[in-house]
From TrEMBL:
Pfam families: Peptidase_S26. Keywords: Hydrolase, Membrane, Protease, Transmembrane, Transmembrane helix. It is an enzyme of class 3 (hydrolase). GO terms for molecular function: signal peptidase activity. Residues 8-171 form the Peptidase S26 domain. This is Signal peptidase I. It comes from Lederbergia graminis. The chain crosses the membrane at residues 14-35. SUPFAM superfamilies: LexA/Signal peptidase (SSF51306). The gene is lepB. It catalyses: Cleavage of hydrophobic, N-terminal signal or leader sequences from secreted and periplasmic proteins.
Length: 180
């Protein structure tokens, strides 16, 4: 009888420890997310399942997940960091006056025949009216520039709204990949 109680207690402890570890990992380290929509095409597809890394600090061109003003989580690419000027001219990204290549957009740019993929703009011409990305905030854009609600519409994103970055698609199995 005592052996049965001890064994039950050991299994209960192991189960509680496993649940506790899973909760800590999920809450503080990694979390799953499902891509909802087409704003990150062709890089990410509607329904892709990804792992969000909650550790570290977002860097330029990282794909991040954040709490958007609409009480929904968005997934976008970091374009501007605090203090940066951001401008698009003739379908070329300029950050602090320096032109940047965006190889993740090459597929879409090749398909577009009726004008640029990304319309010209300067950061100060957008609703936020900033000349530079404010301290503690990020300027983000979706890869599907013609169909993305991003910082051009909702403004810059405070760092405290960022959940984490993501770069691994784990589902569907046929599409498992590392994205950059």
């Amino acid at each position: 009888m005592v052996k049965g109680k001890n064994e039950l207690w050991e299994w209960t402890k192991a189960l509680l420890i496993a649940i506790g570890l899973a909760a800590v990992i999920r809450y503080f380290l990694f979390a799953p997310i499902v891509v909802d929509g087409h704003s990150m095409m062709p890089t990410l597809h509607n329904g892709d399942r990804m792992i969000v890394n909650k550790l570290g600090k977002p860097e330029r061109f990282d794909i991040i997940v954040f709490h958007a003003p609409e009480q929904k989580d968005y997934i976008k690419r970091v374009i501007g960091l605090p203090g940066d000027t951001v401008e698009y001219k003739n379908d070329v990204l300029y950050i602090n006056g320096v032109a940047y290549e965006e190889p993740y957009l090459d597929k879409y740019k090749a398909q577009v025949k009726d004008g640029p993929l990304t319309q010209d703009f300067k950061l100060e011409d957008l609703p936020s009216d900033h000349k530079t990305v404010p301290e503690g905030e990020l300027f983000v854009m979706g890869d599907n520039r013609r169909s993305s609600k991003d910082s051009r519409h909702i403004g810059t994103i405070p760092m405290d709204k960022v959940i984490g970055d993501t770069s691994v698609v784990y589902w569907p199995i046929k599409d498992i990949r590392y994205v950059k």
